[in-house]
């Protein structure tokens, strides 16, 4: 029944102590408070943290919820799958808190993405698991036989680590023939125990007495402890020691070395001799306090015997017992106040930290939650937390002892890819103590920079007649981002160039940006063209930029000059006439040639390669004009054959040759006579085979048509003679066409008219040269 009542009481305590305090305070989202009995088995249920904080179990999993504690031991664990808190390690309230009530410990539950911080406090409820115990199993007292009734004898009290109802509630003294027990409460919460003599002692009747003192607590079940008191009755001692002061007060700094004097107590005994000697001892102190101080039994000087720590206890109370050798004693109190020293450096603990933050995070994004603590008191324990001021971060106070580091400005990874943030915590002691902690925050990249070309426009030259696949040049774009966001690919923008798709002319390597010629280019067909190249990164969404590329086809000397005049025919002969009366510088004719190349490849020069008489003619180097270099004489041959070579200025140069026939004569019939024989002989030699074959083919046809042909010829000659007899019929010679000279060399500057007159009975005729009738105009 006692066990059932205790379980019911513990259950009611749990229900009453579950308190949820949700509030808005920066990164700290809320608080929860639970209570559990001590000595619970591992895995015992503490509370449903998910329900009490209004969180989903899925949020606990996605946020990687975990417990962070400042202590070295973690008593409670978090079950993320169920959202509950369970006991992880056995909790001993007496070990955790001693006599402090209420006894509790705190920890934080932290979630990420976004960062949320919850403070959880667990109160440990005491169970009656300790029995009262006395410092000694036996106590020996010497009491004089003439001690009057009412004499008091102090007894060391029992100690019970439990608290509350489980503490010591009563003392019982057995038997009570001569003594009664009085228990008094002290200001420090303890109790003073004294035996009061009720009936005088008689040594002659009973020299010794044995008593039993029982200490009982109020727990369920009750627990108790005992001590035996042995009393020896001695001869009379008239006076008891008396302390000079009932209460002594002293102050001493923590961390004072052993042997440091605290204070001195004194007592007087009116007796003389042996009974007047007083000795001092420490009585009625706890196990924790006893090793910290010592008292000189002769002088009453109290000294430090152990390490004093203000953070463990800031005050101590000693009971100093002054005893004589006759069994009398008196007790005084010594209250020692510990003065705090600034001996603890502030501590910095990272509760949560995201060492990677996106550069597009808005101001106010939390990157770290830190806990700052200083166990000193007053000004020694007041801390100030700060970070470097030259960074785009700031520190904010979230809750007592908690700070959050948040972004204070826009981040740019391309400018600063990472930050080393130094957290500085200083207390207000004298001198102040400072601690520092450095955290490294890396800025992750987002695709916020498009690829950039070095130029917005490029102009490159490639030679014509290139081989397909010829590498023109490499186009490069730089992306200030990193990783995939900086991976640049290159694409051609489709367009038409002279009716053809640009992709049929050039191509670009997707990765390297190398531009290749797809086909061979001919300068005479396409001199230049433009196209756009897009550089696109691999970010999401991708960013791009465009550059314009102009390719200029460089002309090569791949075309020889073309002679426009004089026209070279296979079956006819054209001759220029020079009268024998021609003076020096007489213009015979002009060789006209063009070169479809451009630039210096189209600069033409004319040279006389061969001539019947080199001393008679010359050719203009630039204009191709053939002129006489001396006067014509009768000794000069009628037929003059000139070979003119036309060369361009390319490297290597190309050339063409033309044969110019010149007739040196004053009359046209003379020219015809010379050149006809020449022509007939040449034609005969050139076409002999052709005529033989043709004769065999038409001989039959000629025999049949002979009569018809004879008659027709007779009629034709008769009619022709009648016409020539009455009028002069001009013969129109061959004129070269007018060509346009794109290189500025010009065409023939003159036009000549030739008129031939013939008679019926003579093959000779006069040749008359007409005057210049009009300047030539070269039109395209």
TrEMBL record:
Residues 1-30 form the signal peptide. PROSITE patterns: CADHERIN_1, CADHERIN_2. InterPro entries: Cadherin-like_dom, Cadherin-like_sf, Cadherin_C, Cadherin_CS, Cadherin_N, Protocadherin/Cadherin-CA. The chain crosses the membrane at residues 688-713. It holds the Pfam family Cadherin_C_2. Keywords: Calcium, Cell adhesion, Cell membrane, Glycoprotein, Membrane, Repeat, Signal, Transmembrane, Transmembrane helix. It is found in: Cell membrane. Its main location: membrane. Potential calcium-dependent cell-adhesion protein. May be involved in the establishment and maintenance of specific neuronal connections in the brain. Gene3D superfamilies: Cadherins. It comes from Gasterosteus aculeatus aculeatus (three-spined stickleback). The keyword Iron does not apply. One of its GO terms (biological process) is homophilic cell adhesion via plasma membrane adhesion molecules. Residues 78-134, 135-243, 244-348, 357-453, 454-563, 578-675 form the Cadherin domain. SUPFAM superfamilies: Cadherin-like (SSF49313). GO terms for cellular component: plasma membrane. It is a single-pass type I membrane protein. GO terms for molecular function: calcium ion binding. This is Protocadherin 1 gamma b 9. The keyword Transmembrane helix applies.
């Amino acid at each position: 029944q006692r066990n059932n009542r205790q379980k019911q009481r513990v259950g009611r305590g749990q229900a009453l102590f579950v308190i949820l305090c949700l509030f808005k305070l920066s990164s700290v989202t809320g608080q929860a408070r639970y209570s559990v009995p001590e000595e619970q088995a591992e895995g015992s249920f503490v509370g449903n943290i998910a329900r009490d904080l209004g969180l989903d179990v899925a949020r606990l999993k996605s946020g990687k919820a975990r417990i962070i504690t400042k202590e070295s031991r973690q008593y409670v664990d978090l079950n993320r799958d169920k959202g509950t808190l369970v006991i992880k390690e056995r909790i001993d309230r007496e070990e955790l808190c001693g006599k402090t009530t209420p006894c509790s410990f705190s920890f934080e539950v932290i979630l990420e993405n976004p960062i949320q911080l919850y403070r959880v406090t667990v109160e440990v409820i005491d169970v009656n698991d300790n029995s009262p115990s006395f410092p000694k199993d036996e106590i020996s007292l010497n009491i004089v036989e003439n001690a009057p009734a009412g004499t008091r004898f102090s007894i060391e009290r029992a100690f019970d680590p439990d608290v509350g109802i489980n503490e010591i509630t009563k003392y019982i003294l057995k038997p009570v023939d001569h003594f009664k027990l009085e228990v008094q409460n002290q200001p420090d919460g303890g109790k003073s125990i004294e035996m009061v003599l009720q009936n005088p002692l008689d040594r002659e009747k009973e020299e010794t007495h044995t008593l039993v003192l029982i200490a009982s607590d109020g727990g369920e079940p009750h627990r108790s402890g005992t001590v035996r008191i042995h009393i020896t009755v001695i001869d009379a001692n008239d006076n008891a020691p008396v302390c000079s002061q009932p209460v002594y007060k002293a102050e001493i700094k923590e961390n004072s070395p052993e042997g440091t004097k605290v204070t001195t107590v004194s007592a007087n005994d009116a007796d003389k001799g042996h009974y007047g000697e007083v000795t001092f001892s420490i009585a009625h102190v706890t196990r924790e306090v006893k090793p910290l101080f010592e008292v000189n039994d002769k002088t009453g000087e109290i000294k430090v015997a152990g390490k004093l720590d203000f953070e463990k206890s800031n005050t101590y109370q000693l009971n100093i017992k002054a005893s004589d050798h006759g069994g009398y004693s008196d007790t005084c109190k010594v209250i020692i106040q510990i003065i705090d020293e600034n001996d603890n450096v502030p501590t910095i603990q990272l509760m949560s930290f995201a060492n990677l933050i996106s550069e597009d995070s808005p101001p106010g994004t939390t990157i770290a939650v830190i806990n700052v603590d200083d166990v000193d008191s007053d000004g020694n324990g007041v801390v100030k937390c700060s970070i470097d001021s030259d960074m785009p971060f700031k520190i904010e106070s979230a809750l007592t002892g908690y700070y959050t580091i948040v972004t204070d400005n826009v981040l740019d990874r391309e400018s600063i890819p990472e930050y080393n943030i130094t957290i500085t915590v200083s207390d207000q002691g004298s001198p102040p103590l400072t601690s520092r902690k450095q955290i490294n925050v890396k800025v992750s990249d987002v695709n916020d920079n498009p690829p950039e070309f070095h130029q917005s426009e490029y102009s490159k030259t490639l030679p014509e007649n290139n081989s397909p696949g010829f590498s023109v040049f490499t186009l490069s774009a730089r992306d200030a981002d990193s990783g995939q966001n900086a991976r640049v690919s290159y694409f051609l923008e489709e367009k038409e160039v002279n009716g053809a798709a640009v992709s049929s002319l050039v191509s670009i390597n997707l990765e390297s940006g190398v531009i290749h010629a797809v086909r061979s280019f001919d300068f005479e067909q396409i001199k230049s063209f433009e196209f756009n190249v897009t550089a696109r990164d691999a970010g999401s969404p991708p960013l791009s930029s465009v550059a314009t590329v102009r390719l200029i086809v460089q002309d090569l000397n791949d075309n020889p000059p073309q002679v426009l005049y004089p026209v070279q025919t296979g079956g006819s002969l054209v001759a220029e006439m020079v009268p024998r009366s021609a003076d020096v510088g007489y213009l015979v004719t002009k060789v006209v040639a063009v070169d479809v190349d451009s630039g210096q490849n189209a600069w033409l020069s004319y040279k006389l390669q061969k001539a019947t008489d080199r001393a008679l003619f010359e050719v203009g180097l630039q204009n191709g004009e053939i002129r006489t270099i001396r006067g014509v004489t009768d000794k000069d041959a009628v037929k003059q054959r000139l070979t003119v070579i036309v060369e361009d200025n390319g490297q290597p140069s190309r050339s063409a040759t033309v044969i110019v026939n010149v007739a040196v004569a004053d009359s046209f019939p003379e020219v015809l006579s010379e050149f006809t024989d020449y022509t007939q002989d040449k034609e005969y030699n050139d076409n002999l085979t052709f005529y033989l074959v043709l004769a065999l083919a038409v001989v039959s046809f000629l025999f049949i048509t002979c009569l018809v042909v004879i008659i027709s010829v007779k009629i034709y000659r008769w009619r022709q003679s009648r016409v020539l007899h009455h009028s002069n019929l001009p013969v129109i010679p061959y004129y070269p066409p007018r060509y346009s000279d794109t290189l500025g060399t010009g065409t023939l500057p003159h036009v000549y008219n030739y008129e031939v007159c013939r008679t019926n009975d003579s093959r000779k005729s006069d040749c008359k040269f007409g005057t210049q009738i009009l300047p030539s105009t070269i039109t395209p």
